Task: inverse folding
């Protein structure tokens, strides 16, 4: 279980402090899917990076299975069982996709395993295994490869930062099925940052972040009306892509 207590994060720009997150608390139980949504610039990606150790909290605590990981490094958190897919994945010139998947797995992967992973995220495996993870790949291709590096092994908690970003409709539908499968297995906690209604509807709970604060958090059936406009107008939270699916 992930437990976050009174988390705050601030930065300093031009000699002035700016608070990005303010007293954020939440939990992700084992096997639970929590979707974080809200307007752009509200602090959603900052939460993901704090969980992974890319940023370190100004105040508050982060616990994984009861262990305080607030000051742990990215490496320590990965060893503890946290997997992370960036919103904008890094590129590694000179490294093949097959090598990247093997590094993520922690062992040299046979060809058929790599091919299976790439197929799960909508890529034609034979065409990609020996390609470099560089600028020749589109943003959507990079995003799917990044997600494959998380799917390659079991985690206690998987964090996906806007997995739909840059993905075509067909690949998005495949990813939705993968998330459904992960959720059905109930073996890993899932924290997804998303604007997509199809992803939000899969969640056990939804948390809305606005202005660096949690404004609503609860079961999906309670929160969804606020996002779809059935209770209040909240159109900026959801993408219009779902209308085409």
Result:
């Amino acid at each position: 279980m992930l437990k976050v207590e009174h988390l705050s994060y601030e930065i300093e720009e031009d000699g002035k402090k700016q608070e990005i997150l303010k007293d954020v608390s939440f939990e992700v139980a084992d096997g639970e899917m929590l979707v974080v949504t809200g307007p752009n610039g509200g602090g959603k990606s900052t939460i993901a990076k704090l969980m992974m150790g890319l940023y370190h909290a100004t105040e508050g605590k982060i616990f994984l299975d009861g262990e305080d990981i607030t000051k742990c490094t990215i490496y320590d958190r990965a060893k503890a069982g946290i997997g992370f897919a960036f919103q904008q994945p890094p590129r590694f010139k000179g490294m093949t996709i097959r090598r990247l998947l093997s590094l993520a797995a922690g062992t040299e992967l046979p060809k058929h395993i790599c091919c299976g992973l790439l197929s799960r995220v909508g890529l034609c495996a034979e065409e990609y295994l020996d390609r470099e993870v560089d600028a020749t790949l589109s943003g959507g291709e990079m995003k799917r490869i990044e997600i494959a590096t998380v799917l390659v092994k079991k985690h206690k908690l998987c964090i996906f930062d806007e997995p739909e970003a840059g993905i075509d409709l067909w690949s998005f539908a495949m990813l939705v099925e993968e998330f459904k499968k992960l959720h059905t297995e109930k073996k890993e906690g899932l924290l997804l940052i998303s604007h997509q209604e199809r992803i939000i509807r899969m969640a056990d709970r939804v948390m809305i972040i606005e202005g660096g604060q949690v404004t609503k958090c609860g079961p999906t059936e309670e929160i969804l009306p606020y996002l779809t406009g059935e209770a209040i107008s909240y159109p900026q939270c959801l993408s219009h892509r779902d209308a085409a699916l």
User: Anything to note?
Assistant: The first helix runs from residue 44 to 52.
